[in-house]
Structure prediction request, 596 residues.
Amino acid sequence: MISKDAFRRMGPVEWEIPTDFRKDMRVPVRVFASEPLLEAALQDRSVEQALNGSTLPGVVGQFAVMPDVHQGYGFPIGGVAATEFPGGVISPGGIGYDINCGVRLLSSRIPFEAVSDHLEKLAAALFSKCPSGVGSTGQIRLRRKDLHAVCRAGAGWAVKNGYGRQEDLARIEAEGCLQGAEPTALSKRAADRGRLQLGTLGAGNHFIEVDVVQRVLHPEAARGMGLMEGHLALQIHTGSRGFGHQVCSDYVREFQNAVGRYGIRLPDRELVCAPMDSPEGKRYFGAMNCAANYAFCNRQVITHSARRAFEAVLPGLVEDWDLHVVYDLAHNIGKVETHIVEGHRQKLLVHRKGATRAFGPGSEELPPGYQELGQPVLVPGSMGTASWVLVAAGGAMEQTFGSCCHGAGRVMSRSQAKKQVWGAQLLQDLKAQGIAVQAGSMPGLAEEAPSAYKEVDSVVEVVCQAGIAKKVARLRPVAVVKG
Amino acid sequence: MGELLENAAVGMLDLAGAEAKQAESKPQTFDITAEDRESLLVLWLEEILYQMETRRVTFTNFQVEIRDVLSLHGTAEEYPLKRILKFIKAVTFYDLEIEEDTDGFSTTIVFDV
Prediction:
């Protein structure tokens, strides 16, 4: 276990382990955390995993660790590493099994008071129209060529096929479509798993949540995002489903041999990687982009289903029940971006695993409405507490390769949570708090109990204090759908 | 080693809470080759997960024969899947090492759930 003595305090919420801590480190590990959050991170193996991540060939700058960090496989969840592009490596374990797991936030003009007596009905409609649960399949059956079209067009495929509107696309990271998708790099197994699961939420920590905008702290940004105090918003948290899991599994396995071929030595087999300019690296990058685009498309189809659910329940209660995309972003991804490293602009492959992109004001990659404000950053908390909408600040580009935290972060494993929390009791507790819940499984609900997560407010305080982001609005959950 | 793979499969299905429908079973065979024994274990478990998800089946009575160090022939009884309680995304290589001592083979497998 790593102790606190290994760190140098670099600022009020910044801690660093220098490269002389371990011989194989190529860059320092920089943790963004308050003292209690750092101590929480030291309770599992997440810092050790960050040290392992700092050994990747071609890694530059620093290995950044977000305040919601917790133990993963290979990288910690909440880890950001940038490698030279194309000279460095790409590591599937630095991106995660659920490629482009991410969050979409939608705003509305629906006053909470107008619908507060109808939340159970709204949750039931969302549950019914958005397939969820273990191994769930959707209404869409993709033929092979359709799947390839989804891989190439991402969310644009959904809009073209009637699942949403053109204006939705402008407010998605990369407009919902990453370049470089290569369907020929997919295995038959990945294709088999992808064909039936488009438009499905899945299980685990994935959810659809109706929130009320509880407090606005940055009125200009909130206005730009369409968020109004006392009005409903909707979050969708899901990813590329079995399709992405299979892509990651395929390449973690394939790369087991690649590391030997390219003479790469690693402290953990789950960190396997290949040079970005190698045939294996290029194939994984092509397949990973396919899965990322599938995930963007998945959240777009679910958005369409959520709009139908609102339309089924809310006419007669409010005049306008429409939902507008605020933003959609990935938190398990590898992206080619340009950043300044030691004073020089450099093209990098930024691995974000359990970390959200956070491009500050002035970034050309942002849509017009957000170029001046900075990119919205979505930080969902646990289902019984709160979520935050932030806006990226300039410090993110300087300190974290334009990255921010992605959630509250677990403090309790799923099995621990199931031992300590009884799902049916939790359901009652949430109802008593005025939160309507539709869940496919009570043990699954228990795993996601609020007590299994860190306090999201304290996580958000850290990134704001570090100058990575600014607070825009706090959201309070009022209805939750879980698979 | 064969027994380790059999037990790993049983353990994984138990973790997933896989429940079979009451139906006639069908024999199923598996032939897998890998580069090393840890990869053989991962491939074996991945194959079972893949069959479960795409064909909605589950298995009992695994018998695994190691044909040479790096390939296996497995058999099992296949049943239609009634439900699973826990979705296993992936079998990871995280800290994966198969150890052998006088009691036989042992390992710890970390699943992404």
